[in-house]
Design goal:
Blueprint lengths: L12 E4 L3 H5 L2 H14 L2 E3 L9 H5 L3 H14 L7 E3 L2 H14 L5 H11 L2 E3 H7 L9 E9 L9 H10 L2 E5 L15 H4 L1 H17 L4 E4 L2 H13 L6 E3 H9 L1
Parallel strand pairs: 1-2, 1-3, 3-4, 5-6, 5-7, 7-8
Helix pairs in contact: 2-12, 5-6, 7-8, 10-11
């Protein structure tokens, strides 16, 4: 479980952290998320010095490198003390949860800095519903949607927020499917270290989702979608995956 810290900072002025995958592969997801946030926020800042959350190094057990990346992220967002919204449950969990583990043997001053930074971190859907109190996206998008909730969203407000926002859109029907709570096998560097286990989990997840015959597969994590889409392509299967923000903008255009 990746339970966020209590009393996280809220506000209508926010920072946006795009994540590595959005920067390299899912640029449209980040653009859609920013567009939706601008409709509900007074100001959205995008610090140019941001890079990675440090999760690849952390998941590989290289805590020293993870600490360097986390400190770089803290510096990149030091221009203000506003909340930081991330279109990725796993990257958000890295910064409000796993970073504390990476710094557990560090000096108290550094641990305090990481704890303070964690209070600013929110996943995109979670922030819309539980910080900005957005009760719906509105608009129309006719589709049967299978929702994948990533492992890193467990214990957070993201799964229910994602569901409620999708259900607020006219024309969307959420589908049930076998193994909906199962891991898809990505796990960041887990898929590199244990490729056979990762692939077997992914194949089962993809087949379970497609058995429900969805028009779209939606998640709050592009990393899971990247993994699942890659497996589907290797199997020769069509896999119409989309980040939640892409669906939200399409519905409200």
């Amino acid at each position: 479980m990746f339970t966020p810290p209590p009393n996280r900072i809220k506000g209508s002025k926010i920072n946006f952290m795009a994540t590595c995958l959005c920067d390299a592969i899912f640029a449209d997801a980040a653009e859609c998320a920013i567009d939706i946030l601008k409709r509900h926020c007074q100001k959205v800042e995008f610090p140019a010095d941001q890079t990675c959350c440090g999760q690849p190094a952390f998941n590989s057990g290289d805590f020293a490198s993870a600490r360097k990346v986390v400190m770089s992220t803290i510096r990149a967002f030091s221009g203000n003390d506003w909340p930081i919204v991330v279109p990725s449950a796993s990257c958000a969990a890295m910064l409000f949860h796993s970073a504390k583990i990476a710094f557990r043997d560090s000096p108290q001053s550094e641990r305090d800095m990481v704890d303070s930074f964690a209070l600013r971190i929110w996943e995109f859907c979670d922030y819309l519903v539980n910080a900005l109190e957005v009760d719906g996206i509105g608009g129309k998008y006719k589709a049967r949607i299978a929702v994948h909730n990533s492992c890193h969203s467990r214990g957070t407000g993201t799964p229910e927020a994602l569901k409620s926002l999708l259900c607020s859109i006219d024309g969307i029907k959420l589908l049930d499917f076998e193994g909906s709570e199962d891991c898809c096998g990505f796990g960041g560097t887990f898929s590199v270290v244990f490729p056979q286990i990762s692939s077997e989990l992914g194949v089962q997840k993809v087949r379970n989702i497609l058995a429900a015959n969805p028009d779209r597969i939606v998640a709050a994590d592009t990393s899971c979608l990247l993994h699942q889409r890659g497996i589907a392509q290797k199997l020769g299967l069509d896999y119409p995956a989309a980040h939640a923000a892409q669906i939200f903008r399409a519905a409200s255009e």
